[in-house]
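Ligand-bound model needed. uridine-5'-diphosphate.
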Amino acid sequence: MKRILVIAGTRPEAIKLAPVVHELRRRELCRVILCATAQHRQMLDQVLEIFELKPDMDLDLMTPGQSLSDLTARLFEKLPAAIRQARADCVVVQGDTTTAFASAVSAFYERVPVAHVEAGLRTRDIYAPFPEEVNRRLVAQVARWHFAPTERARQNLLREGIAARNIYVTGNTVVDALLAVVPTVHGLPDHLQPPPGSRLVLVTGHRRESFGAGMRQICEALAEIAAIHPDAYLVYPVHPNPNVLEPVNELLGNIPNIRLVEPVDYPTFIALMMEAHFIISDSGGVQEEAPALGKPVLVTREMTERPEAVEAGCARLVGPDKEAIVRAARELFDNPQVYARMAQAKNPFGDGHAAEQIASVLEHDLLMEG
Ligand code: UD1
Ligand code: UDP
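Prediction:
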């Protein structure tokens, strides 16, 4: 049997690769080996548990406050042996994390072909998002299969000289994951219920390029929104990166209508998105999920590699800019027309069958090789 090594390190990689692992295992044509680098520890385990996945290999690499270089060095130290031990015929990576980049390059060094899930996202600015824009470009250089979520992503790859025959437009596997989990969601747990008469605003934030001044502006904007809209109830599952946790606790820790909580599991996060009046976030995954759920999302970034969400009308770029965030939030609270225009359920990122298409292509090509 051909052996497919799937490598995941962080929360979003696990969410977006879970449908691929399950689909490949359901078909039983190839052997799937799941390797957790554990670039994230708690947040990765939270996802693996929800999707009932147990890693076959766990490199357990996370250290608190890890630097990009240290993490990368540890990955390059451990990954080649893992790839050899798995006797992989193919390595599957997802997105643009340090795990994805180091896994793709390690597989290349081992001369094992690479499949890239969520290929072709670009802002064309190497510092936004940092370092992800460069990570995903590097993965594209070594990948044999490019699974692009949208036609636009395919065009980005063609423009960079990737051969058309190696690009497959599949939709984003996050839609597969979302659709699988939504039926298990039955409202918010009691401890996250907003007080009667208030409107829930869901917040997340963790981008490196916003650390420092940007993060402070975002926090100041949230504090101001809470002050001028007393009926707003902001729920913020705070990313455990110390560069996020520290300013958030310092600037938002004592505001009655801001609820800071630890990262919540995926079904609870979906319940929060469904209950939210709107969302304020810099997350990639949330920009894909919000349109599917018909929730307006204010994106606290200067640019996005997911312009499809902006074009669908659901997402609006407000930057890590205090005034712009407060103004856009005010419009969503006070202007029903603006709200209605944004709160439309559309699904520019696929129909929930991405994993099936990815599995079919990989199986076909690996089995044809004999
Ligand atoms: C990483 C990815 C980013 C992705 C994000 C998803 C890179 C360069 N960045 O950023 O693309 O959007 O994950 O969340 O790959 N920590 C914990 N527990 C956890 C997870 C993180 O304590 O479960 C803390 C640790 O102190 C860790 C730090 O967060 O050192 C940073 O983690 P890291 O993976 O390096 O960066 P992220 O900012 O999470
Ligand atoms: N998410 C979650 N719990 C949380 C916050 C987010 O399950 O407390 C999910 C969210 O639904 C999305 C993914 O995590 O699918 C996004 O992860 P993150 O924002 O960390 O990374 P990005 O998508 O920006 O790379």
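The pocket of uridine-5'-diphosphate (ligand 2) is lined by residues 11-12, 15, 174, 204, 206, 237, 263-264, 266, 269, 283-286, 289 (CB under 6 Å).
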